[in-house]
Amino acid sequence: MGESPTCSKVIHQNSREEGGRPHGLYVMRKRDKYKPAVTKNVLLFLAGFIWGCVGTMLLVLAFSWLSKVSNINIFLFGGVGVVLSLFAHHFGFLKIVDENLERILPMDEKKCLFSFIPWKSYLIIVVMITMGAILRYSVIPKQYLSILYTAVGLALILSSVRYMRVFFREIRRQKLA
Fold this sequence. Notes:
Layout: H1 5-13, E1 17-18, E2 21-22, H2 23-34, E3 37-38, H3 40-66, H4 71-104, E4 111-112, H5 119-136, H6 142-176
Antiparallel strand pairs: 1-2, 3-4
Helix pairs in contact: 3-4, 3-6, 4-6
């Protein structure tokens, strides 16, 4: 009665009656009950927060390694890492952030808590964590690794700022509406 013929046809074809309800509809409602659904504002905040936390963790590691070298090398390795982070942020991470924002901002209904990044990005994260662990336990001197960790960490923090700016813009926009 309020459903389109196509929808009711699909439900009828793909389900069995169970307690007066189509089975497929019952399963969908049961699954949605446990899905951690949140608004797009939560997704925006979560993305910015996680990117910022991971960036901070990488910077802390990099600076802990740099604290064990001479003062001249701290500025050399740290400076190279900062310059590389600006390139990584501008030419790499901003594109990813903008794609995520284009996907999140049009959302009207609640989405899964883990959808602040696309599912394919979770595979990339696993690869990056694995590579980071391999590098951390390799024979490469930590002062050289600090350049990479500084570059990626600072780029993540800079990119998290864009998420947070959009998050606060959305909050203000909703208050005015």
